[in-house]
Amino acid sequence: MSNPWSNLNPRERLLAGIVAFLVTAVIVAVLANKMLANLGTLDAAIAQRQDTLINYSKQLARSQSVDEAYAQVAAMHSSQWTEAEIHDRLRQEIYRLALKEPPPVGAPINPTRDNTLVRIPTLRQGTLREGGEGY
Question: How far apart are CA 73 and CA 86, in angstroms?
Fold first, then answer.
């Protein structure tokens, strides 16, 4: 058996070498492109997870300050209050927090002033009927 490479003349050998080089170069280029695209996807995923981690850290810091504020307010509350007293105090706290410049906790407030950040709707006093539809 003869070697097919030895049967080629020098010009055909040169052409076969160039074709082999070009095929190899295209394969390497395609593989490199896929690897770079994969690296870009991984970089984007890492950046997204870093942003998520930063956001979670900020939320944790905020939640700690909220927990401290809640502990201060909870210390003022008593379990002997009636449900109406609890609702009244919650309503007063909502009105206090809605002000542009909230007074200290426990200070009297006037919710009808025009210095609120939001408008809190009020409902008219309801009446309870003992009969009718829906009972």
Answer: 12
Residue type, 16: A
Query: What domain range is 43 assigned to?
Result: 10-76
Do 37 and 23 share a structural domain?
Answer: yes
What dihedral angle (degrees, nearest 10) is formed by the CA atoms of 87, 66, 118, 120?
Answer: -10
Query: Which residue, among 97, 104, 92, has the nearest Cα to 118 in the 3D structure?
Result: 97
- How does DSSP classify residue 98? H
Placement of tokens 């950040």 in the chain? 117
- 98 and 113 fall within a common domain: yes
Instruction: Say which residues have a Cβ less than 8 Å from residue 116's Cβ, sequence separation at least 6.
Output: 98, 99, 100
Q: What is the pLDDT of residues 53-68, one digit of tens each?
A: 999 999 888 888 877 8
Is 100 part of a structural domain of the chain? yes
- Do 91 and 72 lie in a common domain? no
Q: Encode pLDDT of 14-44 as tens digits.
A: 999 999 999 999 999 999 999 999 999 999 9
State how far the Cα of 13 lies from the Cα of 80, in Å rounded to an integer. 100
User: How many domains does the structure of the chain reveal?
Assistant: 2
